[in-house]
Amino acid sequence: MTGNYGVTFLNTPNYTIYSNPGGFVMKGAEYSGTIKMESLRQRHGEIAMKALSTTAGGAGTAGYAMVPIFVDPRVIDQTRKYTPLVELVPRVTNQGMFADYNIITAKGGGVTAIEDAALSETNTTFDRQSTAIKFLYAIGRVTGPAIAAMPAWSLGGLSPAGGATGAFNDQNATNAKQMEVLVKTREIRELEESLIVNGDASSDATQFSGIVKLMSTTNTVDKNTSALALNDIDLSVRYAFDDGGRPNLAVCSSGVFQDLLGLLTAKIGYLQSTDSVFWGFTTIVLNTMVGKIPVIPSMYLSNVSGSKAIYFLDMSVVEMRVLQDLTFEDLAKTNDSEKFMLKIYECFLIKSTPFCSSITEISA
C-alpha cells in the first residue's frame, strides 16, 4: 500500500486533507494539515508524471521495451568484389561440351619468280584447339520461418552499372528467399571473375584457366622485382604488336593502377591522365603504338611486391564461351526449407596469346 500511496500523494504526510468541496471545518489531532488539489497536481507534473523517456518501461530484448528497433533497410555487403571482366569479356554461345576453334600456326608464304617460272604451291599449317566447358554453381537454402519472418530488404550494390568501374545498383528483396538468391547471384559472378583472372585447370580440373595461367610467360616483360617504368609499357605492347596483336584493354592490380597514375601524372603534369572510354566508364588511358588502351584494376590480382602485374589483352581473341548462362533452379524440398541453385556452364578463352602481352613481377 505504501507504494500506491506514494504514487498518488508523493511526500504528502498521512491524514492530510487535500479535498474539501463543502468547506467543512475539520478538527482533531488525527489531521495533519491541508494541501490544495492544484498544488498536488503541480507536484505530480514536476515529479511523478514527468515526460515519457526512452528508458521507461524496462529493458527490452535489444534496448528498452517501449522503444522499437528500427534497422536500416539497406544491407551492406562488406565482402563485395567488383567484377569488371564479367562485364567486359564478350560472351559467345557454344554448342557441345568443348569450345573448339582452329588456328593457323604457319604459312608457306608468297614467293618471287622469273617470267613463266614453274609455280609450286606452299603449305599452310592448321591446328585445332579445344577447351572443356566447366560448371559453376552457387547453392542456397532458406528455412520456412525465415521466409515468414524476414521483412523486405535492399541489398546494396548487386552488380556494377556503367561498365567496369561504375557505381553499384541496389536490388530489392521482398522476402528471405529473394535476398538469398541475390547474394548467391553475387557469389557466382565473383567466382566467375576470380576464374577469369586466376583460374588454373592444371591444378584444379573443375576450373577453366584464366588470364594469368593462359598468358604465362608469353610476351612478358619480367621486372624481376623492380619498379614499373613507362618504357616497360611500350616494350610490352610492342611484343604483342610484333606478333600480330592489337591490345585494346589492360587489366592490372590496384597497386599497379596506382603506380601508373603516379607515373602518368609526373609525366604529363597538369594534363588529365584519365579519360572516358567507349565501354562507358572513366579510367587511365595509355597512349601506345596501337592506340589508346584503357586500364582497369582487378581486385583479384596480387598487390604483393614482386608479384604485381599488368596484362594487355587483344579483346578480338578473348571470349567467354557459354553453353548455358546464369540459370536459377529449385532443388528437392527437404524439411521446412527451400533449397535452390544458380549455375553457369562456360569456359574462358584467349584464342591467340601472342596477340597479348604482360608486365610481371613488379615491385612496390
Give a brief outline of the structure.
With 364 residues, this protein is of the alpha+beta class. It has helices at residues 2-9, 37-46, 84-88, 144-149, 176-198, 211-215, 230-242, 254-268, and strands spanning 59-60, 63-64, 74-75, 91-93, 98-106, 125-132, 134-143, 153-160, 168-173, 220-226, 249-253, 274-276, 282-288, 291-298, 308-313, 318-330, 337-350, 357-362.
Helices and strands in order:
Elements: H1 2-9, H2 37-46, E1 59-60, E2 63-64, E3 74-75, H3 84-88, E4 91-93, E5 98-106, E6 125-132, E7 134-143, H4 144-149, E8 153-160, E9 168-173, H5 176-198, H6 211-215, E10 220-226, H7 230-242, E11 249-253, H8 254-268, E12 274-276, E13 282-288, E14 291-298, E15 308-313, E16 318-330, E17 337-350, E18 357-362
Describe the overall structure.
The chain is α+β, with helices and mostly antiparallel strands. The protein has two domains: 1-70, no CATH class; 84-109 and 126-362, Major capsid protein gp5 fold (2-Layer Sandwich), CATH 3.30.2400. The protein has eight helices and 18 strands. It has a seven-stranded mixed beta sheet with strand order 10-18-15-11-14-13-12. A four-stranded mixed beta sheet has the order 4-16-17-7. It has a three-stranded mixed beta sheet with strand order 3-8-9.
CATH fold title of the largest domain: Major capsid protein gp5 fold
Secondary-structure content class: alpha+beta
CATH class of the largest domain equals Alpha Beta
Q: What's the end-to-end separation, in Å?
A: 79 Å
Rg, alpha carbons: 37 Å
- Low-pLDDT parts are none
How much of the sequence is in beta strands? 25-35%
